[in-house]
Amino acid sequence: MTVASSRSGGLRVRANEQGTPLEITIEPSELRRPPDTLAREIVQLCRDAARTAGLARRAELRRAGVGSAVLRYMGLPEPGDEDRTGSSAGTDERPVESWLRG
């Protein structure tokens, strides 16, 4: 599980490696924003947290001796591979088991 925060720090999301939010913190000032904008940022923060958690899981499995082919099959993100995990706007490739599926 990891935490992703907005640039202002007014939004914080703790999520697992599938992007499932486990805790969302919203500062009162953020509630003045349009709901659809706020929702999009929350979903993006879930994706960011999922990527960070996935990278940590990849590193942990790598240290445990899991091979590259198995890691690729698991679909874990790779360093520098932002487009694959949905961190870039407009990308819709996420793990099938994620609640973030469109």
Terminal Cα separation, in Å?
A: 22 Å
The total count of helices amounts to 3
User: What is the strand tally?
Assistant: 3
Q: Major sheet, described briefly? A: 3 strands, antiparallel
Structural shape = elongated
CATH topology-level name = Ybab, Chain: A
Q: How many domains in all? A: 1
Strand order, biggest sheet?
Answer: 1-2-3
Radius of gyration: 14 Å
CATH architecture: 2-Layer Sandwich
Determine the fraction of residues in helical runs and give it as a percent range: 25-40%
Low-confidence stretches: 83-96
Our estimate of the beta-strand percent is 5-15%
Average pLDDT across residues? Answer: 82
Q: SSE order in H/E notation? A: EEEHHH
CATH class label: Alpha Beta
- Helix/strand class: alpha+beta
